[in-house]
Structures are given as C-alpha cells and as structure tokens.
Amino acid sequence: MGSAGKHKEPSIWNMTFIILMMISFFQTMGQMMMNVLIPLYVYDIGAPAQIVGMTVGAFAISAILVRPFIGPAFDAFNKKMILIISLLVIAVSTFLYSVATTVTAIFVIRLLHGAGLATSAALAQAMAADALPIQKMNSGISIFGLALAISQAIGPLVGLALLDFFGFQWAFRISAFVIVGGLILACVIKEPGDHARKPYQLKLDRMFSKGAVIPALLIALLSIPFSCINAFVVIYGNLLGVEGMGAYFAVYAGCLLATRPLFGSLSDKYGVQRIIPIGLCFFVASILVLTLASSLSLFLLAAVIGACGYGAVIPLLQSLGFLCSPYDARGAASNTTFFGLDAGNLVGPTIGGMMVSLFVASGASEVQSYNGMFFVLIMPVLIAFIVFLMARKTIMKPTE
Asked: Whole-model pTM?
C-alpha cells in the first residue's frame, strides 16, 4: 500500500513537448492568417466563389501528393532536419503571396505551401507523440492542440488587423516572419525517441498506418464542412452586413482552450467511444446555428458550439490513430491522419464554392446560396457518425 501511495503519474510536460507546442503555435499562427487572408484576396481580385474555393483548397493537392513520400521519411531520417526544411518552405511560400498578383500565381504558391504544411504539421505531431507517455496520449495530444487553439484565436484577428492597417502585401510578409519564429525553435529542439530508424522504403505500410485508416476517414469527413466554413464564413458575414467577423475565430479558439483538455481528459477516463459521438452532435448543432445566423451573436454561438464539436473531436481521432499503430510507425500514423485532413481541406472549399456557384446560377441570391451550402455540410458529419458507430469495435484495440 505504501509503494502504491508513492506511485507518481507520468507527466506530459517535458522540454521537447513544450518546444514542439511552440513550433506548432508559430506554424499554425501563420497558417490561420493565410486561411482568412487568401479567400479575401482572391475574392478581392474578382474571382467567383468557385475559384475562391479551388484556390483555398489548392494547398491540399500537393499535401496529398507528397504524403506517400514523406510518411516513410518520418520513420527513416532525422525528424529535426525534415522539420526545419518544411518550415523553411512554408516561410518562403508565405512571403511569395506578397508578390503574387494573379489567381494563377496564388494557386501555384498554394501548391508549394501545401507541401511544406503536409510535412511540418504531421511531423511535429509525431514528434510530440514520441515525447508523450502512452497513458497520457489522449490528453497529451489534446493539450498539444492548444497551441493550435491559441493561434486560431490570434491568427485571424491579426491577419484581418494587418489587412486593415497595411494591406494584403505586408500582411503576407509579416505572416512569413511569424513562421520564422517556429523555424528558429526547430533548430534548437532535440529529437525525441531513441528507437532505431527504419530504412527508407516506399511501401504501403511505411507510407500509411493500417490502424489509423478509419480515424483518418472520419477526420476527412469532418474536415469537409470545417474547412468550407473557415473559407467562406467571413465572406458570408460581410454579405449579411455583420461587422467584426474576426471575433468568430477568436471565440471559437478561445473555447478550444477549455474544451480540448476537458474532452481529452474525459476520453482518457471513459474512452473515446463515449466522447466522440457527443462531439459529433455538437458539430451538427453548430452548423445548424450557422445557417440561422443573421447577427454577430449567432455567429459567435455557432463558434462556441463548434469548439465542442469539431475542435474537440479531431485531436481524439488523431490520438486514436497513434494508439492503434505500433510505436515505430508513429510517423506513418500521423501521416495517415493528416492525409484525411488534407483530403477534407481539398474537397470542402472546392465543393462548397461549386455549390454556391450552382445556387447562384439557379437564381438564388449570394446570401441564400451560401446559406444553402452551409446546410448541406451537415451531411458529411452524419456520415461520420454512422461510420464511427459501425467501426468503433474494430478501432478500439490499441497497439502496445
């Protein structure tokens, strides 16, 4: 009994994990600034909704194309050097937006940007998973996501503020300097984990983890509506005459600071099979509120509910991908779940923009068209709910 009383719970807090959170913050900060600026920039150039959606989602094309090659690299080469190179690519591509003056140029830069994001985001999370005790994986990955939540709160607000004060060009350049902050930290981090590296081989089981396939499919389904909402919510709010739409992102991200640790802790205690369905219900409710929004207060309510939905569920699905994969395949597992994220980010804005254009062509107003598009976005969430209920017994078998 005495020894049991002295037993100490393993902690998630170590220097490697903390620095990786900071890197994730800087990288996501720059990304969130781009997420709100790029659709406005393309729309300002005069592109229709369909082209706006295709350009916003273009980065996911290159992300999907490079994943089969970077997955094996994560478990074969020095993770620190790969992270440094990928952050450099992101910084350069972000700066290049400031000299792009056509939709075609922006589209090409988005492809370069996507290759860097595909590598750095998945790799940082895989390195964080290496630094976590297995007993704290759910809560650890959820807390790791707090860096993303904070940057989601600051990024859009800073991006819109810089746009108001300096215009698009300087907003892009300052975003590039933000990424450099993460690049500097990547240079001083120590690579976690002491397991032997595998040889680089382009094999399917090295590119992707079988245990993470279903979590990745669920992430893809949920990312379709989320990425579409992020791409068009400011434009939709502006069409309705709602001012202060930057607050939508701030409230959403602020609520994540509370919901992500809470949902992660509850999942460690009660299991993701009980917590994820609750989050999916919240996500559906948030989209429904968004379709009814005509004032800033309703947009903010949708943000609060959405933080308990998509914002809470995604890190649980990512941690599930790690738990259902062998330790020496953590890189492949992270690559697999991010492949799902990329697929959703590509399909969401592209299909959303096409739907808006079709509604407008059929005689609907722009406001009615965006509203109808948001309502249709409930369908992927319902499909994800059904898939999870059908597959939860097969994916709830963590690999030691």
From this structure: 0.71
